[in-house]
Records
---
Amino acid sequence: MECLLGLLKVKVVRGLNLAICDPLSHSSDPYVVIHLGQQKVKSSIKYKTINPEWNEELTLSITNWTLPIKIDVFDHDTFTKDDTMGDAEFSILEFVEVAKKDVAGLPDGTVMKTLHPDSDNCLAAESCIKLKEGKITQDLFLKLRNTDTGELVLHLEWVSIPGMGH
């Protein structure tokens, strides 16, 4: 069995300017699917919007921090196959490295690391990994690929497993 390093809470905050998949209503019925290795978690469907507000927390068990987290956004269709609305991917390597550090005594709000958008990631804006209320957190603005438009806003939070180090 793989060793559990910790849990990653992925809060799917919202989508911005997602693709219009339902031309009649000029909107979409988006939902998000997050993959990590064999794990798959899914948000609820938000109807008739291209700027959905989910604010839903999905939890992944982290056993291999070298695997990227893959995200797909779909448009829910009742009678046909759901349309893809783009995808994104990000690495949690730096996030988990920071999460494993001893942060005792550091002031709340300490920025542990800043990540910048580049060709290797889907970041739409600079993203800081920081200490907030004793937890390692990160806000991500991801630009969706394989589509003309759309961004996703995510909030990550690390949950340590007691007895598993930090």
---
Amino acid sequence: MQISDLEQFIVRAKAATYAGSGAAEPESRPGTVDLAYAEGDYGYLDSYAGGSDFLGREVVAFEGQPVWALGYYGYWCGLR
């Protein structure tokens, strides 16, 4: 695994899930929305909870082992 490959995978995964309005997976925990993407040896899961205020976590695995994660919090202000 090279960092540049990881970076490019993360961009594609985000485009294929939330940023691209991808289909949600069954919730992994009550009240969550889970968005998953896989490509070759890489897997991505974005899991978030909440509505206008939300928090979540993105995790990338390589060959089944976590190699990158990001936690986030945000709120919907109604602007687009």
